[in-house]
Write a structure and sequence with these properties.
Shape: elongated
Oligomer: single chain
Number of strands: 7
Helix content: 40-55%
Number of helices: 10
Structural class: alpha+beta
Radius of gyration: 31 Å
Low-confidence stretches: 1-29, 35-51, 70-74
Mean pLDDT: 77
Length: 295
């Protein structure tokens, strides 16, 4: 006799893995799909990713990116490493710099080379601060006393003077803030870097870890970096360390891991100024990760 198809003893045909848990399958493929968008490797390889057969180039790119991120996060003692090793760890070349594609990928990962600014106070906060000025507080007290003794006209006059004084002071503060912001927009810092084997000037906010930057006397250091080469270099670090006199710098690696910030003679720090000589440095930290950004 023939056994019914729905009998408990009848063997069932195994469903494909993709049909058993489609939601889990989608979650597993999502990171590979996102990675394929970031590292396009052609239509055929994208189809292989969707089929569950990731391209080896994508896998290597993901592994390389994770390794670089780990190096940057864990290696805060760049001054103890030789310049060549720093370049190797940051996956860059001192004589050629990063490629444009690699720089764009790192910029999207680490963000712009800028320190977040505090939210400016509102208009009402500025006005309240003006009200708390001793002169205005005294006039307010006189106004209240005038009302109590029945001198209404005097109270109105003094109260009007308080309002006028607060309004004028608040307007001046807002205009001064707008002027400072306008000057900041005009003074956009630039950096001279190696990119794709050539020298070019870029907006310093677009610097990323691994960029090779060239500085000379009169330049403002755009980011934290390890000196690769230098010639009679001196830097004014008063804004960071409080040292009034310029300090000499060179490319020699240091032996002591616990070297103080002011004694790291082979490092350049953001917003310090070069007073003498020239240097080539490898950017190790940008934005909030710089020593200035941590303050």
């Amino acid at each position: 006799c023939r056994m019914p198809c729905d009998s408990p003893a009848s063997p069932r045909r195994a469903q494909p893995v993709d049909q058993q848990h489609p939601q889990n399958r989608s979650m597993e493929l999502r990171p590979l799909v996102e990675l394929s968008k970031r590292y396009p490797v052609g239509r055929a390889n994208s189809i292989e990713v969707l089929r569950g057969e990731p391209d080896t180039g994508i896998v290597e790119a993901l592994s390389k990116e994770r390794s670089l991120t780990t190096q940057i996060e864990q290696s805060s003692e760049w001054y103890c490493l030789p310049g060549r090793e720093v370049a190797d760890r940051l996956d860059t070349r001192i004589d050629a710099g990063l490629t444009t594609a690699e720089a764009e990928a790192r910029l999207s990962e680490y963000g712009p080379n800028s320190i977040p600014k505090e939210q400016p106070p509102s208009t009402w906060s500025i006005a309240l601060k003006q009200v708390r000025e001793p002169m205005n507080l005294m006039l307010i007290v006189v106004t209240v006393l005038s009302i109590i003794i029945g001198q209404i006209s005097t109270a109105i006059l003094i109260g009007s003077l308080v309002v006028l004084n607060v309004w004028m002071a608040t307007s001046q503060a807002l205009k001064a803030r707008a002027s400072v912001e306008a000057l900041d927009e005009l003074q956009v810092p630039t950096a001279r870097i190696m990119r794709d084997g050539g020298v070019e000037n870029i907006d310093a906010r677009n610097l990323v870890p691994g960029d090779v930057v060239m500085v000379e006397a009169g330049d403002l250091v755009p980011a934290d970096g390890r000196i690769a080469t230098s010639a009679t270099l001196e830097v004014q670090e008063a804004a960071l360390t409080g040292e009034s006199a310029p300090v000499p710098k060179d490319a020699e690696a240091l032996d002591e891991p616990d070297t103080a910030l002011g004694d790291r003679s082979n490092m350049l720090f953001q917003n310090t100024s070069v007073t003498r000589g020239t240097a080539t440095m490898i950017v190790t930290a940008t934005g909030s990760n710089t020593e200035m950004g941590k303050i």
